[in-house]
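WARN no homologs supplied; continuing
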Amino acid sequence: MGHTEADLAQLLHTGPFHLALRSAFAVRGLPLQRVQHHLAHRGIKVGVTSLSYWQQGARRPQRPESLKAVRALEEVLQLPGDSLIRLLAGDGTRADVERPAARSYRSLVEASGAVEELLAELESPVDGGLHTVGHHERVRIGARRELVGRDSQHVVRAHRDGVDRYLAIHHGDPGCDPSRVVVRAAENCRTGRVRWHRETGVLVAELLFDARLRAGETYLFGYGFEDGTGGPSGEYVRGFSFAGGQYVLQVRFDEAALPVRCRRFAQVSAGAPRGGRSDLTLSGQHRTVHLVEQGVRPGILGIDWDWA
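OK structure emitted
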């Protein structure tokens, strides 16, 4: 992977911490001994070995004195305040998979249990090894007000060597029959194993890449789900376990079933009140609404709508 200001800026948004730190060292042209010297001048003692482990991802700064050193590194490396600290808070240990759409706290809990069961069946590692750089999602609502399907163009970055797959999760509306949902692999991937949980309408699909990624490499791939088996849909929701890059959601309605009002919203968690509400104008010709989030934070984003 190249180390440019643009690469560094992207990694400071998407993480993970160790790749952002490694890129910052390279872009600023500072060897670890020199960084240690700058920290010592600020009264902070950190070994070169510790700095090396941090940039390799072998260890994470967690103790109070280590976090103090990270804040000093932001100054030494001329980075925006809290940029590295934010990545430490946002980096997680769970697989970087899509969460199911959350329609109520109860349904989220039920679906989460089903997801964990299916991931275990697919022998998913605890750490999926990927972070989202960008995700453009198109949702289609049919003439019966049903979720017909959705398509994704996804860009991810590996934060460890050897990653060669992505687990995509689909959660249909009430009444969905996941056994009838069709998984469609598009560019740069192919469909692997598919598992579903009938009671919750959850389906997990394994998307296999054309190559094994090295740490720091990005990968672009496309995929979709054809559904149409559930009842009337009133919203589309996306949950994010990690901070990430840009997310774009577009919802397209059939001309025979147009909503009377559409709104975007955000939630800190499934049980929290919905905030950040704003009305969205339905495009007359294309019958679409959309939202754009430039720097995703952990939480929930979505669009809901009212039928006449």
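The domain at 5-90 is CATH 1.10.260 (434 Repressor (Amino-terminal Domain)).
OK
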